[in-house]
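Late entry, arginine complex.
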Amino acid sequence: MQANSSPVGGGWSGRFDEPVAEIVKRYTASIPFDYRLAEHDIAGSLAHARMLAACNVIAAQDLSDIERGMATILDEIRSGKFEWSLDLEDVHFNVEKRLTALVGDAGKRLHTGRSRNDQVATDVRLYTRAACDEIATLLVNLQKSFVALAEQHTDTIIPGFTHLQVAMPVTFGHHLMAYVEMFARDHERIIDCRKRVNRSPLGAAALAGTTFPIDREMTAKALGFDAVCRNSLDAVSDRDFAIEFLSAATLIMMHLSRMSEELILWMSTRFGFIDIADRFCTGSSIMPQKKNPDVAELVRGKFARVQGHLVALTTLMKGQPLTYNKDNQEDKEPLFDTVDTLTQTLIIYADMIGGIRVKAERMRAAASEGFATATDLADYLVRKGVPFRDSHECVARAVKAAESKGVDLSDLSLAELKTFSNVIEDDVFACLTLEGSVAARAHVGGTAPARVREEIKLAKTRLQAQ
Ligand code: ARG
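Prediction complete; structure with ligand written out below:
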Protein backbone atom coordinates (compact mmCIF):
# COMPACT_ATOMS: atom_id res chain seq x y z
CA MET A 1 0.00 0.00 0.00
CA GLN A 2 1.23 3.45 -0.93
CA ALA A 3 1.57 6.37 1.49
CA ASN A 4 -0.54 9.35 0.50
CA SER A 5 0.51 12.97 0.37
CA SER A 6 -2.60 14.19 2.20
CA PRO A 7 -1.45 15.25 5.69
CA VAL A 8 -4.63 14.24 7.46
CA GLY A 9 -6.71 11.61 5.80
CA GLY A 10 -9.02 10.50 3.02
CA GLY A 11 -12.11 12.36 1.93
CA TRP A 12 -13.00 14.18 5.13
CA SER A 13 -9.77 15.84 6.26
CA GLY A 14 -10.90 19.50 6.72
CA ARG A 15 -12.73 18.75 9.94
CA PHE A 16 -9.70 17.26 11.69
CA ASP A 17 -6.79 18.86 13.55
CA GLU A 18 -4.44 15.91 13.64
CA PRO A 19 -3.86 12.90 11.45
CA VAL A 20 -5.39 9.58 12.26
CA ALA A 21 -3.00 7.39 14.27
CA GLU A 22 -1.15 4.89 12.10
CA ILE A 23 -2.60 1.92 13.93
CA VAL A 24 -6.11 3.37 13.70
CA LYS A 25 -5.63 3.92 10.01
CA ARG A 26 -4.83 0.26 9.57
CA TYR A 27 -7.62 -0.73 11.93
CA THR A 28 -10.33 1.22 10.14
CA ALA A 29 -9.19 0.75 6.54
CA SER A 30 -11.07 -1.71 4.37
CA ILE A 31 -8.90 -1.40 1.27
CA PRO A 32 -6.96 -4.61 2.02
CA PHE A 33 -10.15 -6.52 1.17
CA ASP A 34 -12.68 -4.19 -0.46
CA TYR A 35 -10.39 -3.51 -3.43
CA ARG A 36 -12.23 -6.55 -4.79
CA LEU A 37 -15.30 -4.37 -5.27
CA ALA A 38 -13.46 -1.99 -7.60
CA GLU A 39 -15.12 -3.00 -10.87
CA HIS A 40 -18.57 -2.84 -9.31
CA ASP A 41 -17.68 0.50 -7.74
CA ILE A 42 -16.71 1.91 -11.12
CA ALA A 43 -19.88 0.56 -12.74
CA GLY A 44 -21.93 2.22 -9.98
CA SER A 45 -20.04 5.50 -10.37
CA LEU A 46 -20.53 5.57 -14.13
CA ALA A 47 -24.26 4.94 -13.78
CA HIS A 48 -24.44 7.70 -11.17
CA ALA A 49 -22.45 10.17 -13.30
CA ARG A 50 -24.58 9.48 -16.39
CA MET A 51 -27.71 10.04 -14.37
CA LEU A 52 -26.32 13.31 -12.92
CA ALA A 53 -25.57 14.53 -16.44
CA ALA A 54 -29.00 13.48 -17.73
CA CYS A 55 -30.61 15.36 -14.84
CA ASN A 56 -28.43 18.43 -15.51
CA VAL A 57 -26.69 18.20 -12.14
CA ILE A 58 -23.28 17.96 -13.81
CA ALA A 59 -22.21 19.14 -17.26
CA ALA A 60 -21.82 16.89 -20.28
CA GLN A 61 -18.12 17.74 -20.27
CA ASP A 62 -17.81 16.53 -16.65
CA LEU A 63 -19.42 13.26 -17.63
CA SER A 64 -17.07 12.67 -20.52
CA ASP A 65 -14.08 13.49 -18.29
CA ILE A 66 -15.35 11.02 -15.70
CA GLU A 67 -15.87 8.33 -18.34
CA ARG A 68 -12.40 8.86 -19.72
CA GLY A 69 -10.82 8.78 -16.27
CA MET A 70 -12.71 5.66 -15.26
CA ALA A 71 -11.62 3.86 -18.43
CA THR A 72 -8.00 4.57 -17.49
CA ILE A 73 -8.55 3.44 -13.92
CA LEU A 74 -10.18 0.22 -15.07
CA ASP A 75 -7.17 -0.48 -17.28
CA GLU A 76 -4.80 0.23 -14.41
CA ILE A 77 -6.69 -2.09 -12.10
CA ARG A 78 -6.93 -4.91 -14.64
CA SER A 79 -3.27 -4.69 -15.51
CA GLY A 80 -2.26 -4.58 -11.84
CA LYS A 81 -0.78 -1.09 -12.16
CA PHE A 82 -3.24 0.70 -9.92
CA GLU A 83 -1.62 1.86 -6.70
CA TRP A 84 -3.92 1.15 -3.80
CA SER A 85 -3.33 3.41 -0.84
CA LEU A 86 -4.03 2.52 2.75
CA ASP A 87 -4.21 6.23 3.54
CA LEU A 88 -7.26 6.40 1.33
CA GLU A 89 -9.12 3.96 3.56
CA ASP A 90 -11.30 2.13 1.10
CA VAL A 91 -11.97 1.30 -2.52
CA HIS A 92 -14.34 4.25 -2.92
CA PHE A 93 -11.80 6.89 -1.89
CA ASN A 94 -9.02 5.19 -3.79
CA VAL A 95 -10.92 5.26 -7.05
CA GLU A 96 -12.29 8.75 -6.52
CA LYS A 97 -8.89 10.27 -5.69
CA ARG A 98 -7.30 8.66 -8.70
CA LEU A 99 -10.11 9.96 -10.88
CA THR A 100 -9.55 13.48 -9.61
CA ALA A 101 -5.82 13.16 -10.21
CA LEU A 102 -6.57 12.11 -13.78
CA VAL A 103 -9.39 14.48 -14.75
CA GLY A 104 -9.45 17.30 -12.18
CA ASP A 105 -12.68 18.97 -11.05
CA ALA A 106 -15.00 16.57 -12.85
CA GLY A 107 -13.68 13.86 -10.52
CA LYS A 108 -14.59 15.99 -7.54
CA ARG A 109 -18.12 16.45 -8.87
CA LEU A 110 -18.78 12.70 -9.08
CA HIS A 111 -19.76 12.44 -5.44
CA THR A 112 -22.59 14.97 -5.83
CA GLY A 113 -25.85 13.53 -4.51
CA ARG A 114 -24.42 10.34 -3.13
CA SER A 115 -22.48 9.02 -0.15
CA ARG A 116 -20.18 6.11 0.43
CA ASN A 117 -23.11 4.61 2.31
CA ASP A 118 -25.34 4.09 -0.72
CA GLN A 119 -22.23 3.50 -2.81
CA VAL A 120 -20.96 0.59 -0.74
CA ALA A 121 -24.44 -0.92 -0.43
CA THR A 122 -24.69 -0.79 -4.23
CA ASP A 123 -21.26 -2.38 -4.71
CA VAL A 124 -21.97 -5.22 -2.29
CA ARG A 125 -25.30 -5.93 -3.99
CA LEU A 126 -23.65 -6.02 -7.42
CA TYR A 127 -20.98 -8.35 -6.05
CA THR A 128 -23.56 -10.64 -4.42
CA ARG A 129 -25.68 -10.70 -7.57
CA ALA A 130 -22.69 -11.86 -9.62
CA ALA A 131 -22.00 -14.49 -6.96
CA CYS A 132 -25.61 -15.74 -7.15
CA ASP A 133 -25.27 -16.16 -10.90
CA GLU A 134 -22.00 -18.01 -10.62
CA ILE A 135 -23.18 -20.29 -7.80
CA ALA A 136 -26.40 -21.07 -9.69
CA THR A 137 -24.38 -22.21 -12.73
CA LEU A 138 -22.06 -24.30 -10.57
CA LEU A 139 -25.04 -25.94 -8.88
CA VAL A 140 -26.40 -26.95 -12.26
CA ASN A 141 -23.02 -28.47 -13.18
CA LEU A 142 -22.86 -30.31 -9.90
CA GLN A 143 -26.31 -31.79 -10.42
CA LYS A 144 -25.31 -32.89 -13.89
CA SER A 145 -22.38 -34.84 -12.52
CA PHE A 146 -24.60 -36.53 -9.89
CA VAL A 147 -27.18 -37.39 -12.56
CA ALA A 148 -24.49 -38.82 -14.84
CA LEU A 149 -23.28 -41.15 -12.08
CA ALA A 150 -26.86 -42.05 -11.10
CA GLU A 151 -27.57 -42.98 -14.70
CA GLN A 152 -24.82 -45.62 -14.57
CA HIS A 153 -26.26 -47.04 -11.35
CA THR A 154 -30.02 -47.21 -11.70
CA ASP A 155 -29.81 -50.96 -11.04
CA THR A 156 -26.89 -51.07 -8.62
CA ILE A 157 -28.02 -52.18 -5.19
CA ILE A 158 -26.77 -50.60 -2.00
CA PRO A 159 -28.12 -50.93 1.53
CA GLY A 160 -30.32 -48.02 2.55
CA PHE A 161 -29.68 -47.03 6.15
CA THR A 162 -31.62 -45.61 9.05
CA HIS A 163 -29.69 -45.09 12.28
CA LEU A 164 -26.71 -46.24 10.17
CA GLN A 165 -28.20 -49.75 10.44
CA VAL A 166 -29.11 -51.63 7.28
CA ALA A 167 -32.77 -50.83 6.67
CA MET A 168 -33.88 -51.72 3.13
CA PRO A 169 -32.11 -52.23 -0.16
CA VAL A 170 -32.15 -49.20 -2.42
CA THR A 171 -30.63 -48.46 -5.77
CA PHE A 172 -27.44 -46.44 -5.76
CA GLY A 173 -28.92 -44.23 -8.48
CA HIS A 174 -31.80 -43.43 -6.14
CA HIS A 175 -29.39 -42.55 -3.37
CA LEU A 176 -27.49 -40.16 -5.64
CA MET A 177 -30.70 -38.59 -6.88
CA ALA A 178 -31.55 -37.66 -3.28
CA TYR A 179 -28.65 -35.20 -3.48
CA VAL A 180 -29.92 -33.88 -6.79
CA GLU A 181 -33.15 -32.99 -4.94
CA MET A 182 -31.11 -31.08 -2.34
CA PHE A 183 -29.07 -29.19 -4.90
CA ALA A 184 -32.19 -28.40 -6.92
CA ARG A 185 -33.67 -26.75 -3.81
CA ASP A 186 -30.38 -24.93 -3.28
CA HIS A 187 -30.56 -23.65 -6.83
CA GLU A 188 -34.12 -22.43 -6.27
CA ARG A 189 -33.03 -20.67 -3.10
CA ILE A 190 -30.16 -18.86 -4.81
CA ILE A 191 -32.44 -17.73 -7.65
CA ASP A 192 -34.99 -16.53 -5.12
CA CYS A 193 -32.36 -14.79 -3.02
CA ARG A 194 -31.15 -12.95 -6.13
CA LYS A 195 -34.52 -11.18 -6.39
CA ARG A 196 -33.97 -9.41 -3.09
CA VAL A 197 -30.30 -8.81 -3.78
CA ASN A 198 -31.16 -7.11 -7.04
CA ARG A 199 -32.56 -3.80 -5.79
CA SER A 200 -30.81 -0.48 -6.01
CA PRO A 201 -29.88 1.52 -2.90
CA LEU A 202 -28.25 4.21 -5.05
CA GLY A 203 -29.72 7.65 -4.41
CA ALA A 204 -30.35 7.03 -0.72
CA ALA A 205 -27.09 8.97 -0.25
CA ALA A 206 -25.91 9.06 3.38
CA LEU A 207 -29.31 8.06 4.78
CA ALA A 208 -32.06 10.56 3.96
CA GLY A 209 -31.78 10.97 0.21
CA THR A 210 -30.43 14.06 -1.54
CA THR A 211 -31.53 17.59 -2.41
CA PHE A 212 -30.55 17.10 -6.07
CA PRO A 213 -33.17 16.18 -8.67
CA ILE A 214 -31.89 12.64 -9.20
CA ASP A 215 -33.47 9.81 -11.16
CA ARG A 216 -33.08 6.62 -9.15
CA GLU A 217 -34.91 4.49 -11.69
CA MET A 218 -32.35 5.46 -14.28
CA THR A 219 -29.34 4.28 -12.26
CA ALA A 220 -31.20 1.15 -11.19
CA LYS A 221 -31.94 0.27 -14.81
CA ALA A 222 -28.40 1.04 -15.97
CA LEU A 223 -26.99 -1.34 -13.36
CA GLY A 224 -29.47 -4.10 -14.16
CA PHE A 225 -31.37 -3.83 -10.88
CA ASP A 226 -35.00 -4.95 -10.92
CA ALA A 227 -36.20 -2.10 -8.72
CA VAL A 228 -35.06 0.57 -6.28
CA CYS A 229 -34.99 0.19 -2.50
CA ARG A 230 -38.01 2.22 -1.44
CA ASN A 231 -36.79 3.63 1.86
CA SER A 232 -33.51 5.51 2.03
CA LEU A 233 -32.83 4.54 5.67
CA ASP A 234 -33.34 0.87 4.88
CA ALA A 235 -31.40 1.17 1.61
CA VAL A 236 -28.12 2.16 3.27
CA SER A 237 -28.39 -0.10 6.30
CA ASP A 238 -29.94 -3.29 4.95
CA ARG A 239 -27.67 -6.33 4.68
CA ASP A 240 -30.47 -8.93 4.73
CA PHE A 241 -29.64 -9.81 1.16
CA ALA A 242 -26.12 -10.84 2.14
CA ILE A 243 -27.43 -12.84 5.09
CA GLU A 244 -29.91 -14.61 2.84
CA PHE A 245 -27.09 -15.45 0.51
CA LEU A 246 -24.98 -16.79 3.38
CA SER A 247 -27.93 -18.88 4.60
CA ALA A 248 -28.34 -20.40 1.17
CA ALA A 249 -24.57 -20.96 1.03
CA THR A 250 -24.62 -22.63 4.43
CA LEU A 251 -27.31 -25.05 3.28
CA ILE A 252 -25.32 -25.90 0.16
CA MET A 253 -22.24 -26.57 2.28
CA MET A 254 -24.37 -28.61 4.69
CA HIS A 255 -25.56 -30.82 1.84
CA LEU A 256 -22.03 -31.24 0.55
CA SER A 257 -20.84 -32.02 4.05
CA ARG A 258 -23.45 -34.77 4.42
CA MET A 259 -22.42 -36.27 1.11
CA SER A 260 -18.78 -36.02 2.17
CA GLU A 261 -19.53 -37.94 5.34
CA GLU A 262 -21.00 -40.69 3.19
CA LEU A 263 -18.06 -40.71 0.81
CA ILE A 264 -15.70 -41.00 3.76
CA LEU A 265 -17.65 -43.92 5.21
CA TRP A 266 -18.01 -45.62 1.85
CA MET A 267 -14.31 -45.34 1.13
CA SER A 268 -13.32 -46.83 4.48
CA THR A 269 -12.09 -50.43 4.41
CA ARG A 270 -15.11 -51.48 6.49
CA PHE A 271 -17.57 -50.35 3.82
CA GLY A 272 -15.39 -50.52 0.73
CA PHE A 273 -18.25 -49.29 -1.47
CA ILE A 274 -16.29 -46.83 -3.55
CA ASP A 275 -12.91 -45.57 -4.46
CA ILE A 276 -12.25 -41.86 -4.95
CA ALA A 277 -9.87 -40.92 -7.77
CA ASP A 278 -6.28 -40.41 -6.62
CA ARG A 279 -6.26 -36.75 -7.59
CA PHE A 280 -8.67 -36.01 -4.73
CA CYS A 281 -6.80 -37.99 -2.10
CA THR A 282 -3.51 -37.77 -0.27
CA GLY A 283 -1.22 -40.26 1.40
CA SER A 284 0.33 -40.40 4.82
CA SER A 285 3.88 -39.37 5.60
CA ILE A 286 4.33 -42.39 7.84
CA MET A 287 1.85 -45.10 6.76
CA PRO A 288 2.65 -46.12 3.21
CA GLN A 289 -0.64 -47.94 2.67
CA LYS A 290 -2.82 -44.88 3.35
CA LYS A 291 -5.04 -43.15 0.85
CA ASN A 292 -7.13 -40.53 2.58
CA PRO A 293 -10.30 -38.86 1.28
CA ASP A 294 -8.92 -35.41 2.12
CA VAL A 295 -11.17 -33.39 -0.13
CA ALA A 296 -14.32 -34.91 1.34
CA GLU A 297 -13.00 -34.33 4.85
CA LEU A 298 -12.07 -30.76 4.07
CA VAL A 299 -15.50 -30.04 2.60
CA ARG A 300 -17.00 -31.31 5.84
CA GLY A 301 -14.56 -29.00 7.65
CA LYS A 302 -15.25 -25.99 5.46
CA PHE A 303 -18.91 -26.12 6.35
CA ALA A 304 -17.84 -24.80 9.76
CA ARG A 305 -16.22 -21.81 8.17
CA VAL A 306 -19.22 -20.88 6.03
CA GLN A 307 -21.70 -21.36 8.85
CA GLY A 308 -19.38 -19.23 10.99
CA HIS A 309 -19.72 -16.43 8.44
CA LEU A 310 -23.51 -16.67 8.61
CA VAL A 311 -23.39 -16.38 12.38
CA ALA A 312 -20.94 -13.47 12.07
CA LEU A 313 -23.21 -11.52 9.76
CA THR A 314 -26.43 -12.01 11.70
CA THR A 315 -24.58 -11.04 14.87
CA LEU A 316 -23.09 -8.03 13.08
CA MET A 317 -26.56 -6.74 12.23
CA LYS A 318 -28.57 -7.53 15.31
CA GLY A 319 -27.39 -4.63 17.46
CA GLN A 320 -27.26 -1.88 14.87
CA PRO A 321 -29.59 1.07 15.14
CA LEU A 322 -30.61 2.67 11.84
CA THR A 323 -28.85 3.54 9.65
CA TYR A 324 -25.29 2.95 8.45
CA ASN A 325 -22.72 2.16 11.13
CA LYS A 326 -19.08 1.39 10.58
CA ASP A 327 -19.85 -2.13 11.84
CA ASN A 328 -21.16 -2.78 8.34
CA GLN A 329 -17.66 -2.74 6.96
CA GLU A 330 -17.28 -6.15 8.60
CA ASP A 331 -19.81 -7.62 6.16
CA LYS A 332 -17.29 -8.03 3.38
CA GLU A 333 -14.72 -10.56 4.48
CA PRO A 334 -17.29 -13.18 5.56
CA LEU A 335 -19.17 -12.65 2.32
CA PHE A 336 -16.08 -12.81 0.11
CA ASP A 337 -14.70 -15.85 1.89
CA THR A 338 -18.04 -17.62 1.58
CA VAL A 339 -18.14 -17.00 -2.15
CA ASP A 340 -14.52 -18.14 -2.58
CA THR A 341 -15.01 -21.27 -0.48
CA LEU A 342 -18.29 -22.23 -2.06
CA THR A 343 -17.13 -21.64 -5.61
CA GLN A 344 -14.04 -23.79 -5.19
CA THR A 345 -15.94 -26.48 -3.35
CA LEU A 346 -18.60 -26.76 -6.04
CA ILE A 347 -16.04 -26.95 -8.85
CA ILE A 348 -13.94 -29.61 -7.11
CA TYR A 349 -16.97 -31.60 -6.02
CA ALA A 350 -18.47 -31.93 -9.49
CA ASP A 351 -15.19 -33.35 -10.70
CA MET A 352 -14.76 -35.62 -7.69
CA ILE A 353 -18.21 -37.19 -8.14
CA GLY A 354 -17.37 -37.87 -11.77
CA GLY A 355 -14.22 -39.69 -10.64
CA ILE A 356 -15.83 -42.13 -8.22
CA ARG A 357 -15.25 -45.85 -8.86
CA VAL A 358 -18.20 -47.87 -7.62
CA LYS A 359 -17.62 -51.34 -6.15
CA ALA A 360 -21.06 -52.71 -6.91
CA GLU A 361 -20.35 -56.21 -5.60
CA ARG A 362 -19.39 -54.80 -2.17
CA MET A 363 -22.53 -52.70 -2.07
CA ARG A 364 -24.66 -55.70 -2.98
CA ALA A 365 -23.00 -57.92 -0.41
CA ALA A 366 -23.65 -55.34 2.30
CA ALA A 367 -27.32 -55.12 1.28
CA SER A 368 -27.59 -58.91 1.67
CA GLU A 369 -26.59 -58.63 5.30
CA GLY A 370 -28.87 -57.25 7.97
CA PHE A 371 -32.20 -58.70 6.75
CA ALA A 372 -32.83 -55.82 4.42
CA THR A 373 -35.87 -57.54 2.86
CA ALA A 374 -37.70 -58.19 6.16
CA THR A 375 -40.24 -55.44 5.40
CA ASP A 376 -40.89 -57.04 2.02
CA LEU A 377 -41.81 -60.28 3.77
CA ALA A 378 -44.13 -58.38 6.12
CA ASP A 379 -45.79 -56.67 3.13
CA TYR A 380 -46.12 -60.11 1.45
CA LEU A 381 -48.05 -61.45 4.44
CA VAL A 382 -50.30 -58.38 4.40
CA ARG A 383 -51.11 -59.05 0.76
CA LYS A 384 -52.12 -62.58 1.85
CA GLY A 385 -54.57 -61.09 4.35
CA VAL A 386 -52.52 -60.91 7.56
CA PRO A 387 -52.98 -57.58 9.43
CA PHE A 388 -49.72 -55.56 9.29
CA ARG A 389 -49.03 -55.61 13.04
CA ASP A 390 -49.34 -59.41 13.09
CA SER A 391 -47.19 -59.84 10.01
CA HIS A 392 -44.56 -57.57 11.59
CA GLU A 393 -44.46 -59.92 14.57
CA CYS A 394 -44.25 -63.09 12.38
CA VAL A 395 -41.35 -61.64 10.44
CA ALA A 396 -39.57 -60.51 13.61
CA ARG A 397 -39.64 -64.15 14.77
CA ALA A 398 -38.43 -65.36 11.37
CA VAL A 399 -35.53 -62.85 11.50
CA LYS A 400 -34.60 -64.09 14.96
CA ALA A 401 -34.56 -67.69 13.73
CA ALA A 402 -32.51 -66.84 10.64
CA GLU A 403 -30.10 -64.82 12.76
CA SER A 404 -29.50 -67.69 15.16
CA LYS A 405 -28.79 -69.97 12.18
CA GLY A 406 -26.50 -67.32 10.72
CA VAL A 407 -28.41 -67.16 7.41
CA ASP A 408 -30.52 -64.64 5.48
CA LEU A 409 -34.34 -64.85 5.29
CA SER A 410 -34.11 -66.01 1.69
CA ASP A 411 -31.95 -68.96 2.83
CA LEU A 412 -34.77 -70.40 4.98
CA SER A 413 -36.71 -73.24 3.36
CA LEU A 414 -40.41 -72.92 2.57
CA ALA A 415 -41.17 -75.40 5.37
CA GLU A 416 -39.22 -73.30 7.86
CA LEU A 417 -40.90 -70.09 6.70
CA LYS A 418 -44.32 -71.72 6.98
CA THR A 419 -43.74 -72.28 10.72
CA PHE A 420 -44.02 -68.48 11.14
CA SER A 421 -47.12 -68.13 8.99
CA ASN A 422 -48.98 -70.79 7.07
CA VAL A 423 -50.05 -68.33 4.35
CA ILE A 424 -46.50 -68.31 3.02
CA GLU A 425 -46.19 -70.04 -0.37
CA ASP A 426 -43.50 -70.64 -2.95
CA ASP A 427 -43.98 -67.15 -4.43
CA VAL A 428 -42.43 -65.64 -1.30
CA PHE A 429 -38.88 -66.02 -2.59
CA ALA A 430 -39.44 -63.48 -5.37
CA CYS A 431 -40.04 -60.75 -2.82
CA LEU A 432 -37.10 -61.78 -0.65
CA THR A 433 -34.55 -61.00 -3.35
CA LEU A 434 -32.87 -57.60 -3.39
CA GLU A 435 -33.93 -56.98 -6.99
CA GLY A 436 -37.55 -57.90 -6.20
CA SER A 437 -37.49 -55.61 -3.18
CA VAL A 438 -36.34 -52.51 -5.03
CA ALA A 439 -38.41 -53.18 -8.17
CA ALA A 440 -41.57 -53.32 -6.05
CA ARG A 441 -41.16 -49.70 -4.96
CA ALA A 442 -42.11 -48.17 -8.27
CA HIS A 443 -44.38 -45.33 -7.19
CA VAL A 444 -43.34 -41.66 -7.41
CA GLY A 445 -40.31 -41.14 -5.19
CA GLY A 446 -39.61 -44.89 -4.90
CA THR A 447 -36.30 -46.64 -5.39
CA ALA A 448 -37.26 -48.96 -8.30
CA PRO A 449 -34.79 -48.78 -11.21
CA ALA A 450 -37.63 -47.92 -13.61
CA ARG A 451 -38.70 -45.03 -11.39
CA VAL A 452 -35.16 -43.78 -10.95
CA ARG A 453 -34.74 -43.77 -14.74
CA GLU A 454 -37.88 -41.61 -14.96
CA GLU A 455 -36.53 -39.18 -12.38
CA ILE A 456 -33.20 -38.98 -14.17
CA LYS A 457 -35.03 -38.13 -17.38
CA LEU A 458 -36.97 -35.36 -15.66
CA ALA A 459 -33.84 -33.99 -13.99
CA LYS A 460 -31.97 -33.94 -17.29
CA THR A 461 -34.73 -31.99 -19.00
CA ARG A 462 -34.85 -29.53 -16.11
CA LEU A 463 -31.06 -29.10 -16.03
CA GLN A 464 -30.86 -28.58 -19.76
CA ALA A 465 -33.22 -25.64 -19.48
CA GLN A 466 -31.35 -24.00 -16.57
N1 ARG B 1 -15.55 1.20 3.77
C1 ARG B 1 -16.87 1.48 4.19
C2 ARG B 1 -17.65 0.15 4.33
O1 ARG B 1 -17.18 -0.82 3.85
C3 ARG B 1 -17.56 2.34 3.19
C4 ARG B 1 -18.67 3.16 3.74
C5 ARG B 1 -18.15 4.16 4.68
N2 ARG B 1 -19.16 5.05 5.13
C6 ARG B 1 -18.97 5.81 6.22
N3 ARG B 1 -19.94 6.58 6.56
N4 ARG B 1 -17.88 5.74 6.93
O2 ARG B 1 -18.71 0.08 4.93
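The first strand starts at residue 157 and ends at 162. Will revisit in the morning.
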